[in-house]
Specification:
heterodimer; A: alpha/beta; Rossmann fold; 8-stranded mixed β-sheet; 3-stranded mixed β-sheet; 6 helices; about 30% strand; globular; B: alpha/beta; TIM Barrel; 8-stranded parallel beta barrel; two-stranded antiparallel ribbon; 10 helices; about 35% helix
Chain lengths: ~200, ~260
């Protein structure tokens, strides 16, 4: 069973549709009761960092999420801002992040760009996994849809699961124990996204 | 490597899809939900959906329709039409839309762009500029309300203002070329491209994949949007939703200079 955290942000329905099509049980959790029994969790997110943190705190789901992820060690996948929230802090906002991963979220430095288009990093880009198992099992030359101006910078290099090049490499997927994140949008990335979501549901 | 985006643009009027010619009355081309399903199968890069009734009729966006389409879409969706406040923009994002476009409202109140970007992040806020040549000197000018209302704004300076205000993308829509299928106006695009660093998507004029290839060859990373090209087939403009396959798209990008993908 996949549980989608619904705190008023991010496309929970798009995730739910994909899992239904895959015949993988899925539920949407808006309350602590609905969240408490979660086995595998997806934390979506769209928007500005502080806005997303504010909405998550206001939902009342945070203590339950912290417990599921940090104490019960249930697999969790943060997507886009949902990934960025797992860091300690973001250049985009003032509020602290969830701090589940030792990482900072930084703005792409304007000095790196050599072409006319700078930010946001918008569109389809290659994702190069460090290992061809786990989230990236059974994928050849995966490409995913990105839409962001800030990137996730883990303190430990080994936490990076995949890198993407945008005028230089950045961490496009992260994994620390039971905690996973993707900067790109698997729910909007056609067959590669569907495969990644299936892989998340089947992670050992 | 980041790829240029090839984007079908769908126009909604009275709940159905239409395709216009130079912003005139549209020809009915089908049902939006059905079109989204076909574009899912064709794995399109992204979709733009514009409700061309909303602003002109002073209506609110059709949230029910947007919700259905956003749920169905397996690719990113940009919605535009009748969005006049940050609250409305936020509601549409909550329905699962990745990007929301402002047009008339952004022209009237540029501060709306900044307020929206602060709430939902720059990457979510798109500004659509509908432009055509106007006046004695035939200069480019931004229009609103389906091309019926002059604004007195020059596209290049408005694009700079939009970038300063914190938008995440500009869609440059050429009214004079709408539905003509004779190619993009590269000179107009060049002027706007030179002025800003934002992602730029252009619409109006694409009549073939060769037009898109020429656009990408010159501008590299750009959004190549088209309406007629992806809903009509043949000289008689029979309605047939179409889009290049992944192989055709990769070959097009290779010919346009993205060879080492």
């Amino acid at each position: 069973m996949i549980t989608l955290v619904s705190y008023g942000l991010g496309n929970v329905q798009a995730f739910a549709n994909i899992y239904r099509r895959l015949n993988i049980p899925v539920q949407i959790a808006q309350t602590v009761d609905e969240l408490a029994t979660a086995e595998r969790i997806i934390l979506p997110g769209v928007g500005a960092f502080d806005w997303a943190m504010t909405r998550l705190e206001a939902s009342g789901l945070r203590p339950c999420l912290d417990d599921l992820v940090l104490e019960q060690r249930r697999p969790v996948l943060g997507v886009c801002v949902g990934m960025q929230m797992m860091a300690r802090h973001s250049d985009e906002g003032q509020l602290p992040g969830l701090g589940w991963i030792d990482a900072e979220v930084r703005r792409f430095d304007a000095g790196r760009f050599t072409q006319k288009t700078h930010l946001p990093h918008m569109g389809w880009n290659d994702v190069v996994p460090r290992r061809a198992d786990g989230l990236f099992q059974d994928m050849s030359s995966p490409r995913f849809y990105f839409l962001h101006s800030y990137y996730f910078a883990p303190a430990r290099e080994e936490d990076t699961l995949a890198v993407t090049d945008y005028y230089g490499p950045f961490t496009s997927a992260v994994g620390v124990g039971n905690i996973y994140g993707t900067q790109f949008h698997p729910e909007k990335s056609h067959q590669w996204g569907i495969q990644l979501l299936r892989n998340f549901a089947e992670l050992a | 490597m980041l790829r240029p985006r090839i984007i079908p643009c769908l126009l909604v009027k009275g709940g159905g899809l239409v395709k216009t010619l130079r912003f005139g009355p549209g020809k009915y081309v089908g049902d939006p939900l059905n079109a989204v399903r076909i574009f899912n199968e064709k794995e399109v890069d992204e979709l733009i959906l514009v409700d061309i009734d909303a602003t002109v009729a002073g209506q609110e966006p059709n949230l029910q329709l947007i919700k259905h389409l956003a749920t169905e879409c397996r690719m990113p969706l940009c919605y535009g039409g009748g969005v006049r406040s940050v609250d409305m923009l936020e509601r549409i994002v909550q329905l699962g839309v990745e990007k929301v476009a402002l047009s008339a409202a952004a022209v009237q109140t540029p501060a709306l762009i900044s307020a929206a970007a602060e709430r939902v992040g720059s990457q979510t806020v798109v500004v659509v500029m509908d432009v055509k040549k106007a006046g004695m000197l035939r200069c480019w000018e931004v229009f609103t309300h389906n091309g019926t209302r002059k604004t007195g704004l020059d596209p290049v300076s408005f694009a700079c203002q939009v970038e300063q205000a914190g938008a995440g993308e500009i869609v440059l829509n050429n009214i004079d070329r709408d539905g003509e299928m004779k190619g993009y106006d590269l000179d107009l695009i060049r002027q706007v491209r030179e002025a800003v660093h934002l992602p730029l998507t252009v619409l109006g004029g694409a009549g073939s994949l060769a037009d898109i290839e020429a656009l990408i060859r010159e501008f590299g990373i750009i959004g190549a949007a088209a309406g007629s090209l992806f809903v009509f087939k043949g000289v008689y403009r029979a309605v047939l939703i179409n889009y290049p396959t992944r192989q055709e798209k990769d070959a097009l990008l290779a010919r346009a200079g993205f060879g080492d993908l």
